[in-house]
Amino acid sequence: MSISFISTPFKLKLPQSTTATAASSASLRSSFLPLYITSTKPTKPFLSLTAKCSVITSSVEAGIGIMGTKLGMMSYFEPSGTVVPVTVVGFREGNIVTQVKTGATDGYNAVQVGYRRVRDKKLTKPEMGHLQKSGIIPLRHLQEFRLISVDGYEPNQKLALEELFQEGDLVDVSGTTIGKGFQGGIKRHNFKRGLMTHGSKSHRQLGSIGAGTTPGRVYKGKKMPGRMGGTKRKIRKLKIIKIDNELRILMIKGALPGKPGNLLRIAPAKIVGKNIPKN
User: Per its UniProt entry, which superkingdom is the organism in (predicted)?
Assistant: First the structure.
């Protein structure tokens, strides 16, 4: 879209008694500058000239993490006798650095990590070519951890569990929740059940979903029956209770997303002002 302005210069007549200096006349002409523009070519908006690129720190991890497999839950007895519910996470072969991304090559700093070795025929040719470029074994899962600095990481570097985490550290764990299929409002949104006796005909029905004439529609985001579970969830600031290097397992306090066998992503907990910038 192009906009053409007045092509004829506009002359402003001042009273004879008015005396203007060169500086004042120049500022006056600048105030009527748009009246002299005759070009019909589209111009870039002024925001693109003054906008500055801001660094996005919300997606930056506090440190590099690893991937593991959920094995199940159990009770862990501390030396004081306190019973702590923990989730056991096991680690198969993998957690190898497959690619290091820098600001010069990709526009941001990140480390790509691979997990769980598989046979060659389980991967596509592009995936095999990506791993063979650095001489890495076939890996099923590839995820990247966006970092502020990638110094000290190189392709085909193995990430050791005992070097990254210690007992008592706080971690952020993300994974896919258990899919429960299509569910009603009572199970999905904890709705109250209707009367079961005294002639009631609304036992587990949803009920009214809005007025008729006004607004004449159902508002977006209305809590209604639908597909439940099967979404990505992150649980933050969970404590590491026990690390067993012989069994290659990690015990984390509390429940983690998914069922046994689910893939989990474990990274150092992000604490604003401590390991993550406030901006």
Answer: Eukaryota
